[in-house]
Amino acid sequence: MRRSIERVALLAGLALGAAVAGPVGSAAAAAHPADARANTDRDRGAAQAKAAKKKPARASKRARARRRAQVVRGRTGPRGAKGGPGPAGGRGEAGARGPKGENGGQGPKGDSGPQGPKGDTGPQGPGATGIARDMTPTPSGTPHVLGRAGPFTLSATCTQDGADVLLTLFVAGPAATVDGYITREGLGGTNTTLVSGVQFADSSSSPVELVSVGTAPIRGPRARYSGSIFTAAGGVQAEGTFAASAGACRASVVSYPFS
After folding, report:
1. Looking at residue 21, what is its pLDDT?
2. Which residues lie across from 134 on neighbouring strands?
3. The pTM is what?
4. Domain boundaries of the chain, sorted by first residue
5. What is the per-residue burial (b if ≥16 Cβ within 10 Å, else e) of 34-63?
6. Are 143 and 156 a contacting pair, CB within 8 Å?
7. Which helix (H) or strand (E) holds 12?
8. What does the DSSP assignment read for 124-167?
């Protein structure tokens, strides 16, 4: 391609020189062959320079490759908008169970709760003796033997004294000491009496009064005894309830021997 351009430029320069020089030029060229060659070389250089000015600059190899890529791929468009969140994925499978962790430290002790109500009396335990007796009041107050409590014999009388009924509990046996509490319930309310270290001599033939209740306000119709009757060799722990009413008396005692 370059050689063709040079040839065309040479021919154009020769034609132009011939036209300008005319016959004189031709004659001068014939008379001076060396000058003619010099003129021809000069004209050829001028023609090449002119052609070089008209020829566009050749693009670099990288630019040509970029243009070819643009022709094949098309130009890059503007950046698209951000897409919305996709739908939630399905629930994955449960992982394997991890190892058991270490036991934590013992926590602080909690506050004590309020005291609960008193429970019902439980069944009689082994070695215990239960005594219960219902009696009808009599003017003479006939003694009723209730039973044995360790080395002691318990008895009671239910006496009708006018409009009042009096229930009295007696204990008979070797010399002993009595400790405990007697709680009376009467028309005036409830009061508790402490019985501590009360001693009595041998009462085998003459029973000793332990508890009494009555319908008269001075005594109270109901009473509870909780304590012990003991000797140097042992004794009994006793729990008893006693009640007197207009037509009946009732005594109930549970005792536990100890040594």
Report:
1. 43
2. 250
3. 0.50
4. 2-57, 129-258
5. eebeebeeebeeebbeeeeeeeeeeeeeee
6. yes
7. helix 2-31
8. PPTT-EEEEEEE--BTT---EEEEEETTEEEEEEEEEETTEEEE
